[in-house]
Design a protein that fits this description.
alpha+beta, eight-stranded antiparallel sheet, six-stranded antiparallel sheet, 5 helices, about 30% strand, globular
């Protein structure tokens, strides 16, 4: 009996040691991966000049305390910023609020990054900006205050008021009149005893077409009306939903070449506006078609249900048959067998969640194109509640890009191919 007991105890100790060793190996592997992600982001950032306002007041970019975020299939890095001793920043006048700054880098294609400054403004005196469990995508249940995001053109893309970790209002937004308030500064900088406004611009002050009326100064001379708080965008046609992508594409020969077509339906034809209209705004659409020996399949990337740009920009993905969809500009490229196979693989394996700001129809088309060796340019635009890659800017980028080898560009618009065979 004692002998059996000793064997059981010995086996239990052995299994515990194996478990602990395996756990340590996994943690070490995860740590190494995160360290590499931070190192890559740091190298890219230091090699590319950023025009963020906050950097001229920054004493230290604390890469040692950077945190890695994996959100909806994409990787981002948040890095604490330490301001010089005589500088503080705020997005509200109340001096009981203090703002803690972080640099945000969202990983893009080909090892590039989109760069933002994030302001966490709160009365919580114990807020820890080095807390790796807190970030833009994970605000917990205790954070109260404001979160403001500026892009590298120093345009405020988002400003929200938070209570117990949840957004309760858009900052500087009057829900009763559906417009932004007047004379509101969105980004304060204090140097010594003097406080000045670094940026009066908050995106919803812009007009829907992306242009300003004569004499209009954003946030100063008057408000512009916004989309309704209940605006819904990009509802898919459920009748055209592709239920099984592998089955949908099974007719193609993966050992032969073919063609890739990228279609862009712009909100304003031959214009870079990210949207058009106020009631039921048009945000455009980007979609693709693949063709081989008379076989055609058309694919568009959508949210599974319409999304709200203010409160719920994300949703599970849906793939739709966009046959005969109208377009304003098209780029087509001949693919060899390897490139064609890569495109098919990218479409069938694409699992990232839809997000209006970070992974929309244009992002999908760009990633599929890159898999086929067609690297499309990227220019971000903005809309009420957010911003990112969009058909307006992408269409103009395609019109103006140098023609890649094996590619053609059509700028007169028309009707896309329909599924065949």
């Amino acid at each position: 009996m004692m002998y059996k007991l000793k064997k059981i105890v010995s086996f239990s100790l052995f299994m515990s040691a194996v478990f602990l060793f395996s756990k340590c190996q996994t943690e070490e592997s995860n740590s190494n991966s995160e360290n590499l992600s931070v190192a890559n982001a740091k190298k890219w950032f230091q090699s590319n000049n950023s025009s963020l306002d906050v950097l001229q007041y920054t004493e230290l970019i604390d890469w040692d305390n950077a945190l890695v975020i994996n959100e909806e299939g994409r990787k981002a890095i948040e890095v604490p910023l330490f301001m010089t001793d005589d500088v503080s920043s705020n997005v509200v006048v109340d001096k009981e609020y203090k703002t803690y700054m972080r640099l945000l880098l969202i990983e893009g294609q080909e090892g590039t990054y989109k760069v933002f400054a994030v302001d966490y403004t709160t009365k919580n005196k114990f807020f820890d900006k080095n807390n790796k469990e807190f970030n833009l995508y994970k605000t917990g249940t205790e954070y109260s205050g404001y979160i403001t995001v500026q892009n590298d053109k120093n345009k405020v893309m988002y400003s929200g008021e938070y209570e117990n970790g949840k957004q309760i209002n858009l900052h500087n937004f009057d829900p009763l009149q559906n417009r932004t308030k007047r004379d509101v500064c969105t980004y304060w900088v204090t140097v010594g005893p003097y406080t000045t406004c670094s940026s009066w611009t908050w995106y919803p002050d812009y007009t829907p077409g992306g242009t300003l009326p004569p004499g209009y100064m954003p946030g100063i001379s008057g408000p512009m009306f916004l989309w309704s708080a209940n605006t819904l965008l990009n509802a898919p046609d459920q009748a055209k939903k592709i239920l099984d992508r592998q089955d949908y594409l099974k007719s193609f020969n993966l050992n032969a070449g073919g063609s890739l077509h990228v279609y862009v339906d712009q909100p304003v034809a031959n214009g870079s506006a990210a949207y058009s209209g106020v009631v039921n705004p048009d945000v455009g659409h980007t979609f693709i078609a693949i063709e081989q020996n008379g076989i055609v399949r058309v694919v568009g990337f959508y949210p599974s249900a319409a999304v709200n740009p203010f409160t719920s920009p994300g949703a599970s993905p849906a793939f739709i048959n966009d046959s005969a969809h109208p377009y304003d500009v098209r780029i087509s490229k001949t693919l060899d067998a390897s490139q064609f196979s890569n495109v098919i693989s990218k479409i069938t394996s694409y699992s990232a969640q839809y997000n209006l700001n970070t992974n929309n129809c244009s992002d999908f088309a760009q990633q599929v194109s890159a898999a086929g060796g067609l690297n499309l340019p990227n220019t971000d635009g903005s809309w009420p509640g957010g911003g990112g890659t969009n058909p307006g800017n992408l269409g103009q980028d395609i019109r103006n890009m140098s023609l890649p080898s094996g590619a053609t560009i059509k700028t007169t618009g028309g009707i896309a191919l329909s599924n065949a065979n």
